[in-house]
Write a structure and sequence with these properties.
6-stranded parallel sheet, binds magnesium ion, 18 helices, elongated, alpha/beta, 53% helix, 392 residues, binds adenosine-5'-triphosphate
Length: 392
């Protein structure tokens, strides 16, 4: 008879907290092996979009590689419908009729046992192992009720969760050492969890240089803050992040390549450049930005491309994302606030259209006063907003 640990979970993605918990339980209960069972469609996890089952399965395979005691089962990922642990344990009992099964969960899980399908049935089929987990207590009720089949195992505190990893990846923050390198590579290669933001950042920093890159990062932070302030959904926040990060991606190209190269690139994409830009070459970076965002960074989201296109002059009928990116850049969060930027920032959090009207008006007035050309698109954008929302 073998003692087999069953480690169920969404594993979205699998991380070192899972691996360490499994390994410590294996050693403490002298289990012969552990089978990781990624859930196909977990019943209680509809709050976030879960990565495809095949990806979560593949990541588990990569994570357990090299540990002879660990394997991965596709029993849930190939089964149709919602993955109930009772069905899984019943199936495993048939596969391993002569072995003793230990179902392993972390301390956050038992509080939901009462919602599980046939939890009593599960306790009749296998032992239950509950490991400690930072931030979660194991209730006394559980200890009393299931004392004969329950094993509470104290393990080292590893304060890692898949939720935190997903959040970090979506914000382009480092996740190294929270999960195996092979899994990180897999995530990046398959662009899971918005991990491509990190890849965009790496590339952009090389293109823009440190100072401009920092400006872009801070514009991104401001845009996300504004988005959250206006209770944007996650998809809109992602568009905001990418657009704000890439808004100046064509700056070096436009300054360094010269007018003919810029015209040629625009013509390739069927864009006729206004003669205004002949003497204002750096200002082409918003239109060229949309081309490079597609070519170099693989961006196809029309909301992102539109916001990059409109971030310099504004445009008629701007979307929410267009406005937030325009204003976040106008505020220049990388500089000390002056009176105008301070006022634009204050307005942006109070009345986004009023802030747009203010920013466009200030831009037009300042450039006119300095004797600089003002591209007519800004005037049009201002007129449009004033007509729609009234002069403020
Ligand atoms: P999410 O944040 O998406 O819920 P998670 O990190 O909790 O992800 P799951 O796939 O939900 O990971 O968890 C699978 C199992 O592993 C659960 O029983 C959970 O309690 C346990 N577990 C996860 N992380 C840890 C950890 N850091 N320490 C101990 N147990 C853990
Ligand atoms: Mg969890």
């Amino acid at each position: 008879m073998e003692k087999i640990g069953i480690m169920g979970g969404t594993f979205d993605p699998i991380h070192n907290g899972h691996l360490m918990a499994a390994e410590e339980v294996r050693q403490k209960l002298e289990l012969d092996r552990i089978i990781f069972v990624p859930a196909g469609m977990p019943p209680l996890k509809s709050a976030h979009k879960i990565a495809e089952a095949r990806h979560r399965h593949n990541m588990c395979l990569l994570a357990v590689a090299g540990n002879p005691y660990f394997t991965v089962s596709d029993i849930e990922t190939v089964r149709e419908g919602i993955s109930y642990t009772f069905d899984t344990i019943s199936q495993l009992c048939q596969i391993y009729p002569n072995d003793r099964l230990f179902f392993i969960v972390g301390a956050d899980v038992p509080s939901g046992f009462h919602r599980w399908k046939n939890f009593e049935g599960i306790t009749a089929l296998c032992d239950i192992v509950v490991t400690t987990r930072p931030g979660h207590k194991i209730g006394k009720n559980l200890r009393d009720k299931y004392s004969d089949i329950l094993h509470i195992i104290e393990i080292s505190d590893v304060d890692i969760s898949s939720t935190k990893i997903r959040q970090s990846l979506a914000e382009g923050l480092p996740v190294r050492y929270l999960l195996p390198d092979g899994v990180v590579d897999y995530i990046c290669k398959n662009r899971l969890y918005g991990s491509w933001l990190g890849q965009i950042k790496d590339k952009l920093e090389k293109e823009l240089g440190r100072r401009r890159f920092l400006h872009s990062l801070l514009v991104m932070e401001e845009a996300v803050k504004l988005g959250r302030h206006y209770s944007c959904d996650e998809d809109t926040l992602e568009s905001l992040r990418i657009a704000a990060l890439l808004h100046d991606c064509a700056r070096p190209f436009c300054s360094e390549q010269g007018y003919p190269a810029v015209v040629a690139l625009c013509e390739r994409d069927g864009i006729a450049l206004d003669p205004f830009f002949k003497t204002n070459l750096p200002l082409t970076h918003s239109v060229v930005g949309t081309i490079l965002a597609k070519d170099k960074y693989g961006i196809t989201d029309p909301m992102v491309l539109s916001a990059i296109a409109g971030h310099t002059f504004g445009k008629s009928d701007m979307s929410f994302v267009d406005k937030v990116v325009y204003l976040s850049d106008f505020i220049k969060p990388d500089r000390q606030p002056d009176k105008v930027r301070g006022e634009a920032r204050r307005l942006a959090y109070e009345d986004i259209d009023g802030a747009m009207i203010y920013a466009l008006r200030q831009t037009i007035e300042k450039n006119t006063a300095l004797g600089r050309d003002v591209y007519r698109e800004s005037g049009r954008a201002l007129e449009y907003l004033e007509e729609k929302y009234g002069k403020r």
